[in-house]
């Protein structure tokens, strides 16, 4: 038993050092990729379930490597966050979102908004508000066409600063959405203290909707609570027509999920928009 224990320990250390080498390599690659602007943004449509029209889209970053392979954010956002690379990376995402907003306006669709994810580190960046407003103004974009998705956890780390930052952003007309709502273990009192326009109900509550009565009740309660507070609701990860119909009946304002569309690269997103001309 002792020998086996020792063996296991050796295996563990070699795994660990391999992992460190791997992470250092990944960090170098990521740093280069930021420099080479290898990141591209996919757009996932958000739909109004009542009339089926598109209301906007969420910008979701992808790493397009030199060999053409696409890497999903789960495989690099955590390290980008840890190394601070999320700041220049996030800036590139915001730039691409602004660029898309100008295209939408040129296409005669200025009613469409784009939501961008803000990582916790970006959110506490000192000059965040100035930088975002400067970027919007440089592109000539009305502030209310940009929405920022921020997780509860990011909002809770420094309450005084959060109130200040959110008030500045909302005061400038930018819409604030709480992302992954319901997963943050936080008190709900912030919902009346922060200038929040939208709650995004996390996919984990939507997954078994219409199949698990306790999820049905939970989601129904979240929608009622949000509406009582004058907050809009987005359901994310909606995959079935039954779920869509259920959410429509409960006046959920927006639907996002594979039932409407997967996240789409630039050209495919523009094609989707052409097919979704409002009636
Ligand atoms: P998120 O903000 O919760 O984004 C929603 C995720 O759910 C996306 O994964 C999307 O592709 C996926 N999704 C949408 N509809 C469905 C569905 O019907 N079924 C299923 N199974 N999945 C669905 P994605 O694009 O891989 O992004 C994962 C996470 O990475 C995001 O979660 C967000 O936290 C982060 N992320 C993505 N882009 C950015 C970014 O530009 N900046 C930052 N800081 N984080 C980002
Ligand atoms: Ca999001
Ligand atoms: Ca989310
Ligand atoms: Ca999520």
From TrEMBL:
Residues 23-277 form the EAL domain. It comes from the Bacteria. This is Diguanylate cyclase/phosphodiesterase with PAS/PAC sensor(S). It comes from Desulfobulbus propionicus (strain ATCC 33891 / DSM 2032 / VKM B-1956 / 1pr3). The chain holds residues 705 to 983 of 996 of the full protein.
């Amino acid at each position: 038993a002792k020998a086996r224990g020792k063996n296991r320990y050796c295996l563990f250390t070699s795994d660990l050092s391999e992992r460190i080498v791997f992470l250092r390599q990944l960090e170098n690659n990521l740093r280069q990729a930021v420099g080479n602007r290898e990141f591209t943004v996919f757009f996932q449509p958000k739909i109004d379930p009542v009339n089926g029209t598109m209301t906007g889209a969420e910008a979701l970053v992808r790493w397009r490597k030199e060999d053409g392979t696409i890497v999903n954010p789960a495989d690099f956002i955590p390290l980008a966050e840890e190394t601070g690379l999320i700041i220049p990376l996030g800036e590139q995402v915001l730039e691409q979102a602004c660029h898309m907003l100008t295209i939408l306006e040129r296409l005669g669709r200025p009613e469409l908004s784009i939501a961008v994810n803000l990582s916790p580190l970006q959110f506490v960046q000192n000059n965040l508000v100035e930088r975002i407003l400067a970027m919007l103004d440089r592109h000539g974009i009305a502030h209310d066409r940009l929405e920022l998705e921020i997780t509860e956890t990011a909002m809770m780390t420094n309450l005084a600063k959060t109130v200040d930052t959110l008030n500045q952003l909302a005061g400038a007309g930018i819409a604030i959405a709480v992302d992954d709502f319901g997963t943050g273990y936080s008190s709900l009192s912030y919902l009346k203290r922060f200038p929040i326009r939208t709650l995004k109900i996390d996919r984990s509550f939507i997954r078994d909707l219409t199949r698990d009565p306790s999820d049905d009740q939970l989601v129904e309660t979240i929608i009622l609570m949000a509406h009582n507070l004058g907050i809009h609701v987005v359901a994310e990860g909606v995959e079935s027509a039954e779920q869509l119909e259920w959410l429509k009946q409960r006046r959920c304002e927006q639907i996002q999920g594979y039932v409407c569309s997967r996240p789409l690269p630039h050209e495919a997103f523009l094609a989707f928009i052409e097919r979704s001309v409002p009636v």
